[in-house]
Amino acid sequence: MAVCDFNMCFTFVWAGWEGSAHDTRIFNEALRRPELNFPHPMGGKYYVVDAGYPNINGYLAPYKE
């Protein structure tokens, strides 16, 4: 999993998960573990994530019908 800022610079990378791990599992684990220093959106902002991630407060995934 990787996070980029608006300048296309990586701000977080977490490698090493097996290929069969779902994006949501990795994302939830990154949110759960404070020692990873996962960058959370601040001040009413949000991150745009792809369809493999959940729509939760601060993270906006595409609408699924």
From TrEMBL:
Principal localisation: nucleus
GO molecular function: hydrolase activity; metal ion binding; nuclease activity
CC cofactor: a divalent metal cation
Pfam families associated with the record: DDE_Tnp_4
Keyword line: Hydrolase, Metal-binding, Nuclease, Nucleus
Compartmental location: Nucleus
InterPro entries: HARBI1-like (IPR045249), HARBI1_dom (IPR027806)
GO cellular component, one term: nucleus
Domain DDE Tnp4: 2-64
Domain of life: Eukaryota
Similarity section: Belongs to the HARBI1 family.
PANTHER family tied to this protein: MYB_SANT-LIKE DOMAIN, HARBINGER TRANSPOSASE-DERIVED NUCLEASE DOMAIN PROTEIN-RELATED, PTHR22930
UniProt-recorded name of the protein: Putative harbinger transposase-derived nuclease domain-containing protein
UniProt source species: Helianthus annuus (Common sunflower)
